[in-house]
Amino acid sequence: MARRVVLSEVETNFVNLLDDFATKLTPPVECRIAGGWVRDRLLSLPSHDLDIALSIPSGHTFAVGFVNYLKTKDIATGSVGKVAANPDQSKHLETGTTRIMGLECDFVGLRSETYADSRIPQVKPGTPLEDALRRDLTINALFYNVHSRQVEDFTKHGLSDLENKIARTPLPPKQTFQDDPLRILRCIRFASRFNLAVENDVMEAIKEEDVKAAIATKVSKERIGIEVTKMLQHDPYRAMSLINELGLHPHVFACDVNPPRETAIASAQILLNLSKRFFVDEMLWLATAATPFNNLTVKRKGKDVRAASVIMSESLKVSTEIKNGITNLFEAVKIVNPDSTVRSEIGTWMQNIAVKPWQRSLTWSAVMAILPRWNGQWNDNAEHIAIQYEQFRERIEALRLPEAIDKSLLLNGTELQQLLSISPSPLLTTIRSGLNVWQLDNPQGTREQCEIWLKQMWEGEGRIEWEKNSQPMNKKNPKGEKRKR
User: Fold this and answer.
1) Residue 182, class by beta-carbon neighbours within 10 Å (0-12 exposed, 13-18 middle, 19+ buried)?
2) Which residue numbers delimit the Poly A polymerase head domain (predicted)?
3) Which among 4, 103, 190, 332 is least buried, having the fewest CB atoms inside 10 angstroms?
4) Class of domain 1-164 as given by CATH
């Protein structure tokens, strides 16, 4: 690995301009690009987010001056935003944010931190060494000096740890994690992203109960959710394995109920084995974490709510889309039938909102089918089930259902009313469902054939069945039967 940053043309131009502006100030301001950009560029990875650490406290004032300087050279920039000092949100120094030549730039002063009982530190201007020591990992504590064009490694371990793929904390690990338990999750994220070996002292510190427990008491649920989501974007199985090995699952995925957590890593192992043969995405990896809560409920406002849904909405604060997606996966398992051969039967469950997208639900159904007899190793039983679901997928594709399930019905609601001389009512919805089944079973059927079938059904026993199925359901009349007058 190179120990110097090779700049792109845009980066070279940016650094030259920043150097020129900062050194001409009175007094001159030292500028360093910090953290992730340095790490990524040393690894020859693209990076467009720059954190510029300054030798003065106010990043906003500096950013405004720099942007005005760039305007004199006809260089387009974005407006300068201000992230005001707010100690309650860990924002102790005023930050200036802007976009310059396609680069997202944050300007903030070098700082040192001390902690009391929360992860919100007491902050004051600091030296480059103090700023480096406050960071989560040595590989994220590197600086690129804008003036000398050199990488600076004040922890003395950052460059070697990046080269040797080691996750190490700048300060003693227990101090690092007790100061800010979010760093535990960031350690897992970077270890999984860059395939880092986590140093033994770091592993042992995380395993200490008081260190793990601080995640729930010191870190906001939103921040936990953000880190978990990010760690699933690179090597999700490694991330889930570390969470399991470190005993973090109950602290990251906390809930009113606390079931055994073994099925989380077991389902992740199964998903890993299926990943080269089936559709797999981040939603499925997140579902493995929720597996221990399958079939469990908790009380919310006097109602039973699925624990898996609560984990997503309360412990991780993920979006409603993700929460519903996870909940639907467990519901889809009850619907997907890999033994089905009838085109309309398969097509209607593929259209079910709980099943969409069907590829994801198919994979998850295979995982859950293998799980009850999983012993940690891929065996004949697992292979048999995997083949069963592969054959089912092939059947779906052979029947050309993926494109059929989204086709519009041959007749819309208005046309159905006219054809059968009926008014809008729940009956119309039932007829449309019947038409959908007919259309799935008759992929070559024409509009004329469809109309003939509908009239035959309406004039025969089909009407009786449709009317029966369209009756409203309620507690006093559970079968939808007409009330006697």
Assistant:
1) buried
2) 31-166
3) 4
4) alpha beta
